[in-house]
């Protein structure tokens, strides 16, 4: 951080004693034999240049120096109460430890105005070259010309920073007395290359055209490359309305060191709390248009049951403070300021849903929420544009609660008796450090009911052998059931080891590999006669089942929709935990109707269940009935 602080403040000091010959001294005054007195008066520009600036944080600076340049309040002074949650975000952005500032937001929550305010603040307080990147060239040019340049021309404090030359406020860059502001857009290598910047403003990253060209890295990495040389003091502000879980803003959100949500005080009792759309109340009304017309939605503060209208919520928002989001609620969330000073996080993220913006009414949110329950497109809109979360289309039907509702009253390890069970099957997901297994009892016939018996993790194949064949699984009458067939994943990890394992247990283990994309056949069998990646022959060969995982996942998703007491239900033992249920809900359906697992989410047990279904197919279990078996 470099600040212009001359040895003496020439605007105030009357006399300056020079004891050496500075190169700036005219020749006649150098090597002077006696004291020379020169009358000196700095010009207006020199005064301005040497003026000591009092450091003012952006939230205090903006109301003094920033003019609103667009919208209904155009021309008026900036007021933090327009968008109260922006105060904390602006000040956190200039905190010394912070390098990445992520804002996952709904539209109309003041994020673009934040960009412009911060740029203006930088130009005045902490100048350094800046690059502002928009999704496309047109948006970029328009915002530069209509929104950003007026910020400088309309503020008395900032106007002197302009050079007055028309070419310095072109649509491609702004050259100020203190710094350069470049304009870039996604997909353009030319606008994103060859500049080194201290400040990066990346706007609407989820709308970016990420592939610039086949040869170059994607444009987002290209843009982030630009502030690499500013190891100290560099800042990247990354803002977007989210799209899907793979979208950049959600990825940045996941990678942040500290995440914050906005807490507001209850207007009745003053309790600070996060607010959410779950607390919007609209009585028994179910017609979105009716709710909008009569504006009858209210916000319920759960602390004391206070029911407030928009005006009082907006008042409460003005008293709000950002607090960290704590994963396990073992400690109360700390306020933003405390987290910044204590933990010095480098990557921070803010969550700005529609309800923390004064521009949204309760009724608008309530109406959008109601529409979302009826129409998938409205659900998409509601997730992205109101809740500011990634939209996962297929997930609504598979909440963890729905999985846990399928638990019956058997303890772990107990097989359903009374002739209900035909056999046990296992699915095994291989990892570098061990194996996730799931053992399930299957019934009879086409409806094929099934019951989870045991699941878990072991760290060796020896331990796995114990679980599968040395443990006795019995029903409450004491009858034993062997694990008839186990399907093990050989696709990713430890392939050779698993081939050997399945050769040692030819009738009991089937090696499995998930195919990419959809296939004509649910599974096909090939004989592998060499170890992977080598020419070493595999004596006897190994049967490998290449499977259409999407087919089996569709089937499983349908199975999980059957109610617990309906025929063919897919049940779990009573000790089935939330973490297990979460793994079963991790994946979602994308627009191409393919199953996807969001990065960083575990889905091991889900894969185990897929492999059990493959075992069901291999054995032709659906074609057996209990009469045949006898
Ligand atoms: Zn209250």
Question: What's the SSE blueprint?
Answer:
Layout lengths: L43 H7 L7 H8 L20 H8 L6 E6 L5 H15 L4 E5 L2 H17 L19 E3 L4 E6 L3 H4 L6 E5 L15 H7 L9 E6 L7 H8 L2 E8 L6 E3 L5 E2 L6 H7 L3 E4 L4 E3 L1 H9 L2 E4 L11 H8 L3 E6 L9 H11 L3 H11 L13 H5 L18 E9 L2 E9 L7 E9 L2 H10 L2 E2 L5 E2 L1 E7 L5 H10 L4 E6 L8 E8 L6 E11 L1 H11 L10 E2 L6 H7 L3 E2 L5 E2 L7 H16 L6 H4 L1
Parallel strand pairs: 1-6, 1-13, 2-4, 2-5, 5-6, 7-13, 14-19, 16-23, 19-20, 20-22
Antiparallel strand pairs: 3-4, 7-8, 7-12, 9-10, 10-11, 14-15, 15-16, 17-18, 21-22, 24-25
Helix pairs in contact: 9-12, 12-13, 17-19
Please characterize this protein's 3D structure:
It is a single chain. Helices cover 29% and strands 21% of the residues. With 630 residues, it is of the alpha/beta class. The chain has a domain at 400-629: Nucleotidyltransferase, domain 5, CATH 3.30.420.280. The longest helix is centred in the first third of the chain and has 17 residues, at 137-153. The N and C termini lie far apart (84 Å). The chain is elongated, with a radius of gyration of 32 Å. It is built from 20 helices and 25 strands. α9 (288-294) runs antiparallel to α12 (362-372) and α17 (549-559) crosses α19 (604-619). Mean pLDDT is 86; it is low at 1-7. The strands form 5 sheets. Strands 1, 2, 3, 4, 5, 6, 7, 8, 12 and 13 form a 10-stranded mixed sheet that branches. An 8-stranded mixed sheet has the order 21-22-20-19-14-15-16-23. Bound molecules: zinc ion.
């Amino acid at each position: 951080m470099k600040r212009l602080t001359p040895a003496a403040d020439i605007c105030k000091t009357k006399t300056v004693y020079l004891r050496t010959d500075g190169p700036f001294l005219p020749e006649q005054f150098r090597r002077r034999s006696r004291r020379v007195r020169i009358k000196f008066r700095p010009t207006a520009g020199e005064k301005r240049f040497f003026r000591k600036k009092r450091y003012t944080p952006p939230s205090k600076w903006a109301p003094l120096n920033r003019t609103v340049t667009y919208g209904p309040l155009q021309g008026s002074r900036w007021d933090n109460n327009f968008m109260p949650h922006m105060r904390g975000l602006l000040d956190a952005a200039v905190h010394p430890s912070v390098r990445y500032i992520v804002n996952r937001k709904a539209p109309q929550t003041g994020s673009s105005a934040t960009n412009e305010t911060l740029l203006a603040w930088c130009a005045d307080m902490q100048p350094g070259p800046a690059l502002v990147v928009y999704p496309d060239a047109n948006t970029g040019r328009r915002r530069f010309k209509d929104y950003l340049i007026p910020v400088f021309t309309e503020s008395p404090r900032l106007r002197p920073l302009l050079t007055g030359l028309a070419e310095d406020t072109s649509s491609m860059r702004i050259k100020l007395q203190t710094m350069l502001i470049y304009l870039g857009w996604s997909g353009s290598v030319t606008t994103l290359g060859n500049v080194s910047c201290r400040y990066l403003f990346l706007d609407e990253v989820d709308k970016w055209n990420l592939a610039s060209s086949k040869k170059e890295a994607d444009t987002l990495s290209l843009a982030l490359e630009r502030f690499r040389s500013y190891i100290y003091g560099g800042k990247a502000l990354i803002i977007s309305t989210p799209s899907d879980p793979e979208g950049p803003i959600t990825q940045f959100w996941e990678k942040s060191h500290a995440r914050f949500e906005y807490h507001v005080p209850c207007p009745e009792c003053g309790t600070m709390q996060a607010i959410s759309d779950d607390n919007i109340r609209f009585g028994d009304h179910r017609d979105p248009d009716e709710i909008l017309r009569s504006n009858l939605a209210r916000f319920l503060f759960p602390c004391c049951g206070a029911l407030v209208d928009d005006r009082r919520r907006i008042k409460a928002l003005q008293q709000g403070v950002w607090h960290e989001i704590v994963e396990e609620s073992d400690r109360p969330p700390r306020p933003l300021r405390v987290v910044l000073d204590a933990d010095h996080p480098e990557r921070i993220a803010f969550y700005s849903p529609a309800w923390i913006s004064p521009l949204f009414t309760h009724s608008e949110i309530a109406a959008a929420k109601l529409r979302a329950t009826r129409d998938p497109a409205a659900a998409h809109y509601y997730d992205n544009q109101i809740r500011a979360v990634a939209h996962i289309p297929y997930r609504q039907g598979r909440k963890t609660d729905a999985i846990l509702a399928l638990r019956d009253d058997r303890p772990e390890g107990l097989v359903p008796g009374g002739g209900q069970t035909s056999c046990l099957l296992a699915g095994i997901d291989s990892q570098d450090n061990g194996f996730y297994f799931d053992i399930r009892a299957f019934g009879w016939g086409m409806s094929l009911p099934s019951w989870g018996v045991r699941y878990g993790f072991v760290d060796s194949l020896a331990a796995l052998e114990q679980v599968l064949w040395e443990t006795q699984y019995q029903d409450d009458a004491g009858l034993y059931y062997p694990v008839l067939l186990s399907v093990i994943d050989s696709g990713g990890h430890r392939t050779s080891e698993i081939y050997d394992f399945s050769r040692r247990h030819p009738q009991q283990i089937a090696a499995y590999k998930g195919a990419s994309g959809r296939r004509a056949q649910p599974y096909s069998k090939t004989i592998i006669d060499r170890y992977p990646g080598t020419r070493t022959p595999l004596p006897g060969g190994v049967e490998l089942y290449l499977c259409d995982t999407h087919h089996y996942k569709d089937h499983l998703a349908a199975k999980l929709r059957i109610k617990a007491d309906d025929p063919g239900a897919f049940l779990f033992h009573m000790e089935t935990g939330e973490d297990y249920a979460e793994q079963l809900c991790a994946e979602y359906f994308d627009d191409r109707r393919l199953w996807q697992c969001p990065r960083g989410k575990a889905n091991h047990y889900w894969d185990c269940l897929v492999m059990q279904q493959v075992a069901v197919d291999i054995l032709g279990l659906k074609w057996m009935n209990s009469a045949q078996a006898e």
